[in-house]
């Protein structure tokens, strides 16, 4: 069997997969988030490591660990931690991908004209979500002179690098995760001297970049898993979900629904699209690139609205009207991500009338998810060609009303994965490839049960709803709008 671990923002999951590709056991351990100041989002690197140990132990309970031929790992991506090379103690918190403390510093760099260089080399917009500015912040606070970093006494890495360091061996990072740091040349897959100088990050503090298939340090400290079990595949969580979907097929785009959302499709490395990131999806025999758009608030929007109104997200979905009657909720609580990348955008509720009630606002919250996803899918289509199918995964996809709304809003088929834990499953598939359990043809043939949703809405109605949404986005960005009801700012 194959063991896969998915280390996410709020929990760590482990799955055990048999030779047919079926999940036969699961384990899960929660992970806390800390918000010590406005815009700051931190986690404990030691707690993350402990959650991996706990999830693995729970998953293997009642199973023979000697049957595990290899380990796969998927991780949250841009989050960053700094630790001592000797002994492995973290020097500070792990800065989450959600952390916004460097927003002003990013704005200053953009104002200096650095944004074009960063995007051209790294494939990523200059935004606090990515790791480079977090690296500068951590080094400024714990090694301001960079003396210890240049001596190689400190290690800076993403979550995959941190977990692999717990196994011992060389300081390494998987290529796809490295491409999210904003310090890597996304085409040559090497740390870029210009970017290292711009962000003041000595190369000696960074890990060595290795393919998604390794070689990696062998797993240790994950009892009852045998020490020395080979780690055969490592992927970023969104990349792993794309791999599990067999997302290399043309005309398909993967959408992972969660706190935020990642919309991704494989692409030529010379592709470009407004508001889209060029990233490395995975590297096995050769690098496979992808275009991606990251949405900051999708499922989090329902959680926020539920907290305001004293309802659960499921209750809001049940209460939602069949129409928002022109109400729009733009969830720009920390600015807008792809395809807008506008840190100054504010959260907005617009189109209110005396007839507006909770069902219309709940509907607007659901629609905000579908609209944001389609904004990115449309950008991907402009950049790399026609998109006929949206491959959906993540917790919110269990909401059938939301998935039908997505099909209607996009005018495209939505194929919703019935298997849970797609990121972990993708890591298991890659590890199985490394173990010789599956070759590329066998991976292509694996059963992938899906629930299909076809668009039912007339094109005219869909276009009118989209026009209203885009008008609301313009309001949220302060770029003007047509006539309509005044908007209530929800900026937090």
Query: How many helical stretches?
Result: 16
Question: Could you tell me the strand content as a percent range?
Answer: 15-25%
Strand order of the largest sheet: 16-17-15-14-20-21-22
**What is the C-alpha radius of gyration, as a whole number of Å?**
22 Å
Major sheet, described briefly? 7 strands, mixed
Q: Separation of termini?
A: 47 Å
Number of strands: 23
Q: Average the pLDDT over all residues and give the rounded result.
A: 92
Instruction: Outline the low-pLDDT stretches.
Output: 481-489
Work out the helicity level: 25-40%
User: What overall form do the CA principal axes indicate?
Assistant: globular
Helix/sheet category: alpha+beta
Describe the 3D structure.
- This protein is α+β, with helices and mostly antiparallel strands.
- Helix content is 35%, strand content 22%.
- The chain is built from 16 helices and 23 strands.
- It has helices at residues 45-60, 103-111, 115-122, 131-142, 147-150, 159-166, 175-178, 193-199, 237-244, 299-309, 313-319, 358-384, 400-410, 422-435, 440-445, 459-476; strands at residues 2-7, 11-17, 23-30, 42-43, 70-75, 80-84, 94-95, 154-158, 172-174, 184-185, 190-191, 208-210, 231-236, 252-257, 261-266, 277-283, 287-295, 328-330, 348-350, 389-393, 413-417, 450-453, 488-489.
- Strand 10 and strand 11 (190-191) form a beta hairpin.
- The longest helix is centred in the last third of the chain and has 27 residues, at 358-384.
- It starts with a strand and ends with a strand.
- The model is unreliable at 481-489 (pLDDT under 50).
């Amino acid at each position: 069997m194959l063991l896969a671990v998915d280390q996410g923002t709020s929990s760590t999951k482990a799955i055990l997969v048999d030779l047919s590709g079926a999940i036969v056991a699961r384990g899960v351990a929660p992970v806390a988030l800390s918000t010590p100041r406005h815009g700051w989002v931190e986690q404990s690197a030691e707690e993350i490591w402990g959650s991996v140990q706990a999830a693995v132990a729970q998953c293997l309970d009642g199973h023979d660990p000697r049957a595990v031929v290899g380990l796969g790992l998927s991780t949250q991506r841009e989050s960053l931690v700094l630790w001592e090379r000797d002994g492995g103690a973290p020097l500070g918190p792990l800065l989450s991908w959600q952390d916004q403390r460097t927003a002003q510093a990013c704005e200053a760099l953009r104002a200096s004209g650095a944004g074009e260089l960063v995007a051209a080399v790294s494939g990523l917009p200059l935004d606090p979500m990515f790791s480079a500015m977090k690296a500068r912040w951590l080094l400024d606070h714990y090694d301001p002179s960079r003396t210890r970093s240049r001596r190689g006494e400190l290690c800076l890495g993403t979550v995959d690098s941190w977990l692999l360091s717990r196994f011992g061996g060389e300081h390494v990072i998987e290529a796809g995760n490295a491409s999210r740091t904003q310090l890597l040349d996304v085409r040559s897959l090497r740390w870029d001297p210009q970017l290292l100088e711009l962000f003041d990050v000595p190369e000696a503090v960074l890990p060595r970049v290795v393919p998604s298939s390794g070689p990696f340090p062998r797993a240790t400290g994950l009892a009852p898993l045998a020490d020395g079990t080979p780690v055969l595949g490592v992927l970023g969580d969104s990349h792993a979900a794309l791999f599990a979907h067999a997302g290399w097929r043309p005309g398909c785009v993967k959408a992972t629904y969660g706190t935020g959302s990642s919309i991704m499709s494989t692409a030529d490395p010379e592709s470009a699209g407004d508001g889209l990131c060029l990233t490395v999806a995975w590297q096995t025999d050769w690098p496979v690139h992808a275009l991606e758009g990251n949405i900051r608030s999708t499922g989090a929007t329902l959680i926020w609205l539920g907290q305001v109104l004293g309802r659960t997200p499921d209750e809001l979905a049940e209460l939602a009207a069949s129409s928002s009657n022109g109400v729009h909720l733009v969830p720009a609580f920390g600015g807008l991500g792809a395809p807008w990348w506008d840190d100054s955008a504010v959260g907005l509720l617009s189109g209110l009338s005396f007839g507006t009630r909770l069902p219309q606002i709940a509907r607007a919250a659901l629609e905000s998810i579908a609209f944001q996803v389609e904004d990115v899918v449309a950008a991907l289509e402009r950049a790399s060609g026609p998109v006929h199918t949206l491959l959906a995964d993540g917790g919110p996809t269990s909401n059938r009303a939301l998935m039908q709304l997505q099909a209607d809003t996009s005018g495209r088929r939505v194929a919703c994965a019935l298997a849970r834990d797609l990121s972990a499953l993708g890591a298991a598939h890659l590890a199985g490839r490394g173990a010789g359990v599956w070759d590329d043809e066998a991976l292509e043939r694996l059963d992938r049960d899906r629930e299909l949703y076809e668009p039912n809405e007339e094109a005219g109605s869909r276009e009118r709803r989209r026009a209203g949404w885009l008008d609301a986005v313009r309001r949220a960005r302060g770029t003007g709008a047509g006539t309509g009801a005044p908007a209530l700012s929800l900026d937090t």
